Amino acid sequence: MDMNKEKIIMWGALAGIIGAIAFSTLWSLAIITDGHWIFGVETLSELGGHRPGRCFFNTGLIVMGLLSIPFGAVLYRRFEHTNLGRISTATFVLAAISLIGIGVFPINTGTPHTFFSWAFFSTVIISLTIMLRPIWMFKRLGRPIVIVTLGTVMVGYITIILVATKNMELALSEALVVISLLIWTISMGISLLHEMLTR
């Protein structure tokens, strides 16, 4: 067993888990500090504009984005044996960089924020869609993470369709996708740690 490689996997997996927990905590603090933000009515980005909790929210985005880079690097190490694995994990890192951009350029900056927001949501959904097969083939991660990944991808596409057909508000769609991604990140981090410890 390569101890250095195992440590890299462990810290990368933990980075993903910590990033998701940190964002969830800071998002909650931003909501509490704001006091007027309404789930499903206002977009998450509204919290990062000229609002009382903007420091919490924007910091959460940046922290999660930064920690998602080493998390993505570990995913790359796990799935680099296939083209789909390499493409999907590289796309995931691009999504992480875009997430940092959303925090650096909050909603009141206009065009830069819009660019990074669209870049993040499109690349992260594409990434997980492509990653489905590598995850399925890497049986040591376990079937539960396949189900969680498939569920996250389905939430992404179903909400896109509902928004496009005007059957769901964009704000609710965005919130549901983000919550699904947080669950997926923690689940994948735990799966990576479990796979490493039970070899």
Please give a structural write-up.
The chain has 199 residues and is mainly α. It has one domain (3-197). 79% of the residues lie in helices and 0% in strands. The protein is built from 6 helices and no strands. α3 runs antiparallel to α4 (111-137) and α4 runs antiparallel to α5 (143-164). It is globular, with a radius of gyration of 17 Å. The chain starts with a helix and ends with a helix. The model has no long low-confidence stretch (mean pLDDT 95).
In short:
The chain is an all-alpha fold and 199 residues long. Helix content is 79%, strand content 0%. It has one domain.
Contiguous low-pLDDT stretches (5 residues minimum) are none
Alpha carbon gap, first and last residue: 9 Å
Helical residue percent band: over 70%
How many distinct domains? Answer: 1
Class per helix and strand makeup: mainly alpha
Number of helices: 6
Report strand %: under 5%
Main beta sheet, described? Answer: none
Mean pLDDT: 95
Radius of gyration: 17 Å
Number of separate strands: 0
